[in-house]
Specification:
By secondary structure, this protein is mainly beta. It is globular, with a radius of gyration of 20 Å. Helices cover 4% and strands 69% of the residues. β3 and β4 form a beta hairpin. The longest helix is centred in the first third of the chain and has 10 residues.
């Protein structure tokens, strides 16, 4: 499995040289740059049972056109210490009215502060652990604003202290653009998931609730995660947070 992910990592990043213009021209290729800045009461990972355990800031960026996108994600504690860096490449293989399928891969670095004694003096050091991961994301659209899907992520750790093999599988539902009056709407995403790290595993339930205003860049989001059963080390029985998200988006045309 990890050999396939490594192959994807080198196949997907096919970059072309581009110059940008904000003039609209329907005969030329459109590119987009969009992103978000999130400030949260508690940093929660892509696998929701794992958390930084303290307030965090997350910077998301997405750049690309048509099917291929580069989407780095940088995470920090509000004290300024790095938490995790993920450098996603995502490819939208199928984009139909009723069905979508995308593939993704990323190298990642996870940072942790540890105490080490050097020459008899104990000091804090930031230790980096490296990962390589791949994802498979099929979704079926019941209607314009309702979809069901599966999310599968495989991750391989390369350093001492990190899980060698991790499997993360979810069954999820996405209810988007739930109207709350003329100006406000909500998005609700519940999911059950299974996590296996080496020989230990667990089952969980989580949901994400997002509140937004039409044509307004700020949204409020909350994630709640509950363990059903797990023997994974570092597992959190109950995790929740509240986040404030600022989003932006720009479209460009190749000159």
């Amino acid at each position: 499995m990890y050999k396939i992910i490594i192959l994807l990592l080198f196949i997907l990043p096919t970059i072309t040289k581009v110059s940008f213009s904000q003039k609209t021209d329907s005969t030329k290729s459109n590119y987009h740059i969009k992103g978000a800045v999130t400030v949260t009461t508690k940093g929660i990972s892509l696998v929701p049972t794992f958390t930084l355990g303290k307030p965090a800031a997350i910077f998301d960026l997405s750049m690309g056109k048509k099917k291929l996108f580069f989407e780095p994600q940088l995470k920090f504690s509000l004290a300024g210490k790095p938490w995790a860096f993920l450098f996603w490449w995502r490819y939208k293989m199928i984009t139909r009215k009723k069905f979508a399928l995308s593939l993704g891969t990323h190298p990642a670095m996870n940072f942790k502060t540890e105490i080490h004694t050097v020459n008899g003096v104990a000091r804090n050091y930031i230790v980096t652990r490296r990962y390589l991961a791949g994802e498979l994301v099929p979704n079926y659209f019941i209607s314009k604003n309702v979809s069901v899907g599966i999310y599968y992520l495989y991750s391989r750790g390369f350093d001492y202290g990190s899980p060698r093999n991790s499997h993360f599988l979810t069954i999820n539902t996405n209810l988007s653009h739930i109207k709350l009056g003329n100006q406000f709407f909500a998005r609700f995403t519940p999911q059950f998931y299974y996590l296996k790290q080496n020989r230990k595993d667990g089952f969980y339930f989580t949901y994400t609730l997002t509140l937004a205003k039409k044509n307004f860049p700020l949204t409020i989001q909350s994630i709640i995660n509950k363990t059903i059963h797990s023997d994974i080390i570092g597992n959190q029985n109950f995790v929740w947070n509240v986040s404030l998200i600022y989003s932006f988006s720009k479209k460009y045309v190749q000159r």
